[in-house]
Amino acid sequence: MGQVWLVTGASRGLGHEIARAALDAGETVVATARSADAVRDACGGRHDRLHALALDITDAEAARSVAAETAGRFGAIDVLVNNAGYAELGFFETFTDAAVRRQFEVNLFGTMNVARAVAPHMRERRSGLTVTISSISGLVASGGGAVYSASKFAVEGWMEGFAQELAPLGIRSLLVEPGMLRTDFMDRKSASFGSIHIPDYAEAVAQYHAFVDGANGN
Ligand code: NJP
């Protein structure tokens, strides 16, 4: 059975690749995304050690239930890959307040929901590894990435502190700060863009969109 991994955002992109690599290494993987079918399809159907579950990370109760089901069924959660996230791309003033809050709801509070659901199971066994996918944008911000960076800076601060609280209880933590990866991240399937038109930013925003379109898929 290997170790038991719980991966969020495993229907596509980095989460899917991590889930796949863990399966290939002989681990048992509970792979989640908002649709369990999407996870299963991405992994090419059924697999003995793959358990696909639906989890929208903004739903704290669902996160608790996925963690309980995983620990109940397999006796442990050895590795949590807290990966699910997306980007609100564009200039700060072009975002509604609701869009900014949605960014934090998923990237920060959603990621916290999953960690809060899993930590008790790891504490009970005095063992575990939490891997949190942050971003280079959690360390350095640039125009067009203000809102996304704000959410990932928050993830960095939270996780740097939480890691120290977990360490004495035998739980290791890893914060990952990737640069640009060739996933759906910059695609309109995943990313959202500021919706408010502000003439002062129009030219810069057009240049930024051209940059995103060029980077998408590369
Ligand atoms: O993105 P993408 P990545 N609840 O769009 C899921 C960070 N990062 O793999 O439900 C649950 O291909 C979504 O699932 P679905 C980035 O911030 C990336 O690149 O089917 N799941 C899908 O599986 C993120 O933290 C780059 O829509 C939710 C997955 O998340 C991580 O890497 C650079 C969800 C997104 O797959 C993985 O992103 C960087 C929700 N509410 C950091 N919302 C980069 N790619 O360049 C979304 O610095 N998902």
Apparent shape: globular
| Overall SS class | alpha/beta
Q: How confident overall, as mean pLDDT?
A: 97
Which hetero ligands occur in this complex?
5-hydroxy-NICOTINAMIDE-ADENINE-DINUCLEOTIDE PHOSPHATE
Order of helices and strands: EHEHEHEEHEHEEH
Number of helices: 6
In terms of per-residue confidence, which ranges show pLDDT below 50 for 5 or more consecutive residues?
Answer: none
Q: Can you give a write-up of this model?
A:
By secondary structure, this protein is α/β, with parallel strands linked by helices. 45% of the residues lie in helices and 16% in strands. The chain has 6 helices and 8 strands; from the N terminus they run βαβαβαββαβαββα. The chain has helices at residues 13-24, 36-42, 60-74, 97-125, 146-166, 202-215; strands at 4-7, 28-33, 50-54, 79-82, 88-89, 128-133, 171-176, 192-193. The strands form 2 sheets. It has a 6-stranded parallel beta sheet, sandwiched between helices. α3 (60-74) runs parallel beside α4 and α4 (97-125) packs parallel to α5. The longest helix has 29 residues, at 97-125. The chain is globular and about 55 Å long.
